[in-house]
Amino acid sequence: MTKRKLAVGGLVFIAALIATTATLRHALTSGTALQVPAAIDATGATDVTRKLNAFLRSVPNDSTVVFGAKARYKAEGTVFLQFKQGIHVEGNDARIFAETDGSGFMPDPNAPWFNPRGWPGNRSHFLLYHDTDITVSHLRTRGPNPGGPGTYNPNLEGQAGIEISACVRC
After folding, report:
1. CA torsion through residues 65, 158, 98, 58, sign
2. What is the mean pLDDT of residues 24-51?
3. Number of domains present in the structure of the chain
4. pLDDT of 7 higher than 80
5. Considering the entire predicted model, what is its pTM?
6. How far, in Å, are 35, 45, 56, 60, 146 from residue 168 at the CA level?
7. Does residue 25 belong to any structural domain of this protein?
8. Per-residue pLDDT tens for 55-85?
9. What is the mean pLDDT of residues 120-127?
10. Percentage of the chain lying above the pLDDT 90 cut
11. Could you give the CA distance from residue 168 to residue 170 in angstroms, rounded to a whole number?
12. CA nearest neighbour of 111 among 129, 125, 97, 96
């Protein structure tokens, strides 16, 4: 490979890196920072799936969602962002967790991403669906399976911590 081709390739890479960095910086600094409301239990004592989803639906595009520092949000269903643009989710080391396999929780059957034939085997703890320019940082998920020998359940192998579906730059 010639020096000229290397130089051109390097310039293309640098231009792509600058464009990506500019997009990320825009997502992190634009819009409003919205704290997850204190009325949503951050101790993990109660299921907050529906309350978190109602809050996330209200978040305007080009905003930052800020979870409580090291908070624990129990979600037996799927917490999701859908049809949003330019959102940064700052998890602050918060955890979205489940204590069951999700079979006792039925998501909104009108949600465009919901497939009742696969529930709860296709449950995700956090779902990005048809979003654009979304960043998620410092957010943890934990399922109900403790792991280890004898705990694998093939009926639940499709469950995920964070699922990204039909997104652009997520």
Report:
1. positive
2. 84
3. 1
4. no
5. 0.79
6. 25, 35, 19, 18, 33
7. no
8. 999 999 999 999 999 999 999 999 999 999 9
9. 91
10. 58
11. 6
12. 129
pLDDT at residue 29, as a whole number: 52
Q: Is 119 helix (H, G, I), strand (E, B) or coil?
A: coil
Token pair of 114 as six digits: 């919901």
Q: Measured between alpha carbons, how far is 141 from 147 in angstroms, rounded to an integer?
A: 14
C-alpha to C-alpha distance for 104 and 84, rounded to whole angstroms: 28
Band of residue 23 on the pLDDT scale cut at 50, 70, 90: very low
Q: What pLDDT score does 13 carry? A: 42
**Owning domain of residue 63:** 31-165
DSSP category for residue 113: T
Q: What are the CA-CA distances from residue 165 to residues 5, 59, 152, 159 (Å)?
A: 36, 19, 25, 14
CB atoms within 10 A of CB 112: 10
Dihedral of the CA atoms 132, 133, 134, 137 (nearest 10)?
160
- Residue 118 in tokens: 């696969």
Angle at 128 between CA 126 and CA 133, to 5 degrees: 135
Count of C-beta atoms within a 10 Å radius of residue 78: 29
The angle subtended at Cα 43 by Cα 41 and Cα 47, nearest 5°, is 55
Residue 114: inside a domain: yes
Tokens matching residue 35: 């704290």
